[in-house]
Amino acid sequence: MINDSIRKYYTDYYRNALGLPGYECNVQNRLYEDDNSKQLIVSKLSFICGQIPSGGKVLIVGGGTGAELVAFHSLGFEAWMIEPDKEAVKVARQKSVVNNIADKYVIDGVAELIPFKNSYFDLIWSFTVLEHVQDYDLSLREICRVMRPGAWGCLFFPDYRCIYESHYKMYMPLFLPKWVAGLFLRLKGRDPKFFLKNTNKINHQKFIRTAMDLPIDTFRHYQPVGIEWKSGRTLMMSLAYFMKMYLDIEYSLSYFIKRK
């Protein structure tokens, strides 16, 4: 039953909203999202090993269909997720039942108004979410507010100065005005509604400008350059490699933040 719900949700997302060719593969991969999320979480937390107390309180900002919620609970943390997409919340609640996670840990809400008291969490986790919030300045302030002194955050989001759109999984001129990127999607036969309505074009510079006004230390985690980048098999890949290596612009940004 849960797999049917996951298939339905992500078929609507990948096929209907994004129009991905071969969307079936993406949907199939989502059936393993709990395990995949756990691997990513373990990998990232290894960089701050020993900094998060055993059984610590975790807030997942933008919990989606609950993969990270299941993963954190399986690792022994007390984790909550907040998610505004009501259909995703329904799937997450189904997962919580299957995995014996109390319903209170799945919250229908937004990052701009986190329903917790100040200094409550030991860890904040947000994976490709801040590019979708209505107000990322307010969202970051709220994230900071609910972090206890010494708490850590793991934040991941695209840099919308780059030339690769990770949702549509295609090269496009994201550094140009939003309407130009929308027109580009139209010319490629893709529906731009999701991009125009649900992205705010956050980037490294905008994030740092906001972070500088908050009581946090910010650490950027650079991803290693893989063989696929070095090979430069296509013109667009070569351009993306140049932007990453010489302009410090890459499509996927990764940060650790620590509350002062």
Automatic annotation (TrEMBL):
<feature type="domain" description="Methyltransferase type 11">
    <location>
        <begin position="61"/>
        <end position="152"/>
    </location>
</feature>
<keyword id="KW-0489">Methyltransferase</keyword>
<dbReference type="InterPro" id="IPR013216">
    <property type="entry name" value="Methyltransf_11"/>
</dbReference>
<dbReference type="Pfam" id="PF08241">
    <property type="entry name" value="Methyltransf_11"/>
</dbReference>
<dbReference type="GO" id="GO:0032259">
    <property type="term" value="P:methylation"/>
</dbReference>
<dbReference type="GO" id="GO:0008757">
    <property type="term" value="F:S-adenosylmethionine-dependent methyltransferase activity"/>
</dbReference>
<dbReference type="InterPro" id="IPR029063">
    <property type="entry name" value="SAM-dependent_MTases_sf"/>
</dbReference>
<protein>
    <submittedName>
        <fullName>Methyltransferase type 11</fullName>
    </submittedName>
</protein>
<keyword id="KW-0808">Transferase</keyword>
